[in-house]
Design brief:
The complex is a heterodimer. Chain A is an alpha/beta fold. In chain A, about 35% of the residues lie in helices and about 15% in strands. Chain A has a single domain, classed as Aconitase, domain 4 (Alpha-Beta Barrel). Chain A is built from eight helices and seven strands, in the order βααβαβαβαβββααα. Chain A has a seven-stranded mixed beta sheet with strand order 4-3-2-1-5-6-7. Chain A is globular and about 65 Å long. The two termini of chain A are about 35 Å apart. A five-stranded parallel beta sheet of chain B has the order 17-16-15-18-19. A four-stranded parallel beta sheet of chain B has the order 11-10-9-12. A three-stranded antiparallel beta sheet of chain B has the order 1-2-8. In chain B, a hairpin with a 7-residue loop joins β13 and β14. In chain B, α12 packs across α14 and α12 runs parallel beside α15. The chains are: A alpha/beta, B alpha/beta.
């Protein structure tokens, strides 16, 4: 998993609520057996028209927001399907962090497993950030995970994050390897579990 | 190597005495959700006990969310902890044409199906491939063969795994990285959810279905109304439902953000499971049933949130927009964004109306359709097909409407044929197809053209979900059948009363 320490870059506002993973990564990009090629699929129908031409009015296609590293998103971002392709696509496009009021549960976990920092802030702070980064002259942010701060033009915002999630992100840890170190605990639990519920064996 | 578990800060020096606060586990009265988590807790990972290593009893795998998980195992040289606790079924990408074939609709789907078969073979996992007599949609297959049992915790790479709550099992969706974690360790790093009780009092009116209950709930609390929560459904209206009808409710609980939806198992669940091929038999069955009888929230358990619904006030529902919470009764008119004070919501409503080609104030039952789809893990079980057939018997699909039925599993299809339901659908003008996820998410060749409008018994009306530019209206199977006959959205109760 990619580590996240301090990242500076352009942020784009995406204020609509309930942007679902079908919109983030449409079905035609789900036919792979690896993770590749998903940057093209990211927010495909918002970025491209039916003929595949770039929609010039969409925020990520405007020169000032091209190459955005951050998205300041609306409520319930990433709802719907469990497809992790949505997170892979965001990362392949170059998005390193999301800032919003709430994320759907599976999507939020998928972000954590891939090193995509999903920051949750109160609605007023998200609205302030959206207004800030909607202006080309103030659309750069600096996010410092260790200090849990977002710095923008005239704004310095502290964010909360689960301590375990923070450590895993800072270090880019392999979650499976971590858990396999607890193999004996799992085996002992499993034995007790099957003794108590023999029909599960 | 670093350990995330060793990095927890050491406990603070205890210079001051704090008031004793009993932990959640120490409090006697528990919700069913907390009982299931506690009974699967391998160990705590955080001091507050919210983050745990959770043992997972079982999973089901599909061909499109699993390949990268298996590749991860292969690259790390890891094995599957308990292959017998996983089942594979091909469902998302396969065609559903009446003549069953192993041929996939495109090269990508063919590669996914063949890699899936290779992975299941190499790692010792049972596979229901597309020609297998038990093939079907994962969340239809798992309960029908008896692999979902009360008290289990089941995680799978599909958000609608919440379905299993209808049997008193905690089911929830996970991403591909967590599939890999599960396969390698039989566990997940899990954050305990808050609990929400949804009490549904009263009785449903004639012609109103469990789909209408869950759509009413999603409409009431919103698409994120249960984010961070596990739901438990209780009340007279829930007790009155069949197990299959309850599956529809738990299935769609994820559409309001819930990552778990439980209904305490009762006699109906025991009767449902008795004799299913993979359910326990003999003495083990008796022991299991005795344990299942204990699975309920304690009477004085405290939930973090409470929601009440009165079943008697619910009418057949449909969605008008592009989020499952944009829903109204069939006898209503479409809402006016101008009445919404919140600007983001107002813009969302207007965008949805524009995408759907509809206008504020329009009568819901005036909306003409070109497609009708009965299928999906939400509503393609045998009771759903019986219900739709009841509406269709002796009637014809309206001119200009292309209608199809995609049974939830091959077994559902066979049973429907034994009951003669296929002949009712075919006589009405529906296509009678093979099983799969099909046009619920249109990963195969069942897909809406841009601008086509579909009455659909599925779970998501997102932009482009059933095809780029396609317009989806969610509703119960009986309502889809009524719309297919009328040629526009229509009240199924009228047809049910006449038949």
């Amino acid at each position: 998993m990619a580590a996240f320490t301090t990242v500076e870059g352009i942020a784009a506002p995406l204020p609509a609520a309930n942007i679902d993973t079908d919109v983030i990564m449409p079905k035609q990009f789900l036919k792979g057996i690896d993770r590749s090629g998903l940057d093209r699929g990211l927010l495909h129908d918002l970025r491209f028209d039916e003929e595949g031409r770039s929609r010039s009015d969409f925020i990520l296609n405007q020169p000032a927001w091209q190459g955005a590293s951050f998205l300041v998103v609306g409520d319930n971002f990433g709802c719907g399907s469990s497809r992790e392709h949505a997170v892979w696509g965001l990362m392949q496009y170059g998005v390193r962090a999301l800032i919003g009021t709430s994320y759907a549960g599976i999507f939020f976990d998928n972000c954590a497993r891939n090193g995509l920092l999903a920051i949750t802030l109160p609605a007023a702070e998200v609205a302030a950030l959206q207004a800030c980064v909607a202006r080309p002259d103030s659309n750069r942010l600096r996010i410092d995970l260790a200090r849990q701060t977002i710095e923008a033009a005239g704004l310095a915002i502290h964010f909360d994050i689960d301590p375990l999630r923070k450590q895993a992100l800072l270090l880019g840890l392999d979650a499976v390897g971590q858990t396999l170190a607890l193999r004996d605990d799992i085996l002992a639990f499993q034995q007790r579990h099957f003794e108590a519920n023999p029909w599960l064996r | 190597m670093h350990s995330i578990f060793a990095l927890e800060p050491p406990p603070p020096a205890r210079y001051t005495l704090k008031a004793y606060q009993p932990s959640r586990e120490a409090i006697m009265a528990k919700t069913l959700y907390d009982k299931l988590i506690d009974s699967h807790l391998v160990r705590r990972l955080s001091d507050d006990g919210r983050q745990v290593l959770l043992y997972i009893d079982r999973t089901v795998l599909n061909e499109y969310t699993s390949p990268q998980a298996f590749t991860g195992l292969r690259q790390a040289g890891r094995t599957v902890w308990r292959p017998q606790a996983a089942l594979g079924t091909v469902d998302h990408v396969n065609p559903t044409a009446a003549q069953r074939s192993a041929r996939m609709p495109d090269a990508g789907a063919a590669r996914q199906a063949s890699y899936f078969a290779e992975n299941c073979r190499d790692f010792g996992i049972e596979l229901f491939d597309v020609l297998h007599p038990l093939q079907g949609i994962e969340h239809v297959v798992m309960p029908e063969i008896g692999l979902v049992l009360p008290g289990m915790v089941i995680a799978a790479g599909d958000s609608h795994t919440t379905t299993y709550g209808a049997l008193g099992a905690l089911g929830f969706g996970i991403g591909t990285s967590d599939i890999e974690h599960y396969l390698a360790t039989q566990t997940l790093v899990y954050r305990r959810l808050k609990t929400m009780r949804v009490s549904v009092s009263g009785r449903l009116g004639a012609g109103v279905r469990s789909k209408d209950i869950i759509m009413a709930l999603v409409g009431k609390i919103g698409a994120a109304g249960a984010t961070g929560y596990a739901l438990e459904f209780q009340g007279e209206a829930i007790a009155a439902l069949s197990v299959e009808a309850r599956m529809t409710i738990c299935n769609m609980a994820v559409e309001c953000g819930a990552r778990g939806a439980l209904i305490a198992p009762d006699d109906k669940v025991v009767d449902y499971l008795r004799g299913r091929p993979r359910a326990p038999q003999g003495a083990l069955w008796d022991a299991a049933v005795a344990a299942w009888r204990q699975l309920a929230s304690d009477a004085d358990a405290v939930f973090d949130a409470e929601v009440q619904l009165d079943a008697a006030t619910i009418a057949p529902m449909l969605t008008w927009g592009t989020s499952p919470d944009q829903a109204v009764h069939i006898d209503a008119v479409l809402p006016d964004p101008g009445d919404e004070s919140d600007p983001v919501r107002r813009q969302g409503m207007q965008r949805a109306l524009d995408y759907m080609g509809l206008r504020a104030g329009q009568r819901a039952d005036s909306i003409a359709i070109q497609r009708a789809f009965i299928g999906s893990c939400t509503n393609a079980r045998i009771e759903d097909l019986r219900d739709a057939a009841q509406v269709l018997r002796g009637r014809k699909v309206a001119d200009g409407v292309l209608a199809m039925v995609v049974p939830g599993s091959s077994q559902v299809r066979r049973q429907a044929e034994q009951e003669g339901l296929d002949q009712v659908f075919i006589a009405a003008g529906f296509e009678w197809r093979q099983s799969g996820c099909s046009m619920c998410l249109a990963m195969n060749d069942d897909i809406l053209a841009s601008g086509e409008r579909c009455a659909s018994s599925t779970n998501r009306n997102f932009e482009g979900r059933q095809g780029a530019g396609g317009r989806t209206h969610l509703m119960s199977p009986a309502m889809v059948a009524a719309a297919a006959i009328a040629g526009h959205l229509a009240d199924a109760r009228r047809y049910l009363e006449e038949n």
